[in-house]
Design a protein that fits this description.
single chain; mainly alpha; Globin-like; two-stranded antiparallel sheet; 7 helices; 2 strands; globular
Length: 127
């Protein structure tokens, strides 16, 4: 995902914006009745991993791989029963977080399009 030679990481505003996105996103996940049971009560380690992953996923420094090795995100999510409804809920929380921190409509669409591929790739349980 690049526009005018800029990575998604740059288009989003870099590290500070990704941190703000993660901080806006996880309270929404924790308050979602279907998503919250999938996450531990201490959400801080999950938030940190998400920050590292999104930084790398959108073209920033390889923080996640440097700390944890290859992301192997589908394999890391296999222990959780994920269906289309949960993937859509996760994406909905992300969209709300992007709106909260003020992403433009165009940037939200680009980011969501990229995240949909991953969210739907994690589906491992039929409806």
């Amino acid at each position: 995902m690049q526009s005018d030679g800029k990575s998604g990481y740059q288009l989003m505003g870099g590290a500070d914006t990704i941190r703000r996105l993660v901080e806006a996103f996880y309270p929404k996940v924790q308050n979602h009745p279907k998503l919250s049971p999938l996450f531990p009560p201490d959400i801080m380690p999950v938030m940190e991993k998400q920050y590292l992953f999104l930084t790398q996923f959108f073209g920033g420094p390889s923080l996640y791989s440097d700390a944890y090795g290859h992301p192997m995100m589908r394999a890391r999510h296999m222990e959780f029963p994920i269906n289309r409804e949960l993937a859509d809920a996760w994406l909905g929380c992300m969209q709300e977080a992007m709106e909260e921190i003020g992403f433009s409509q165009e940037l939200k669409e680009v980011i969501l399009h990229r995240l949909k591929g991953s969210a739907y790739h994690f589906i491992n349980t039929p409806e």
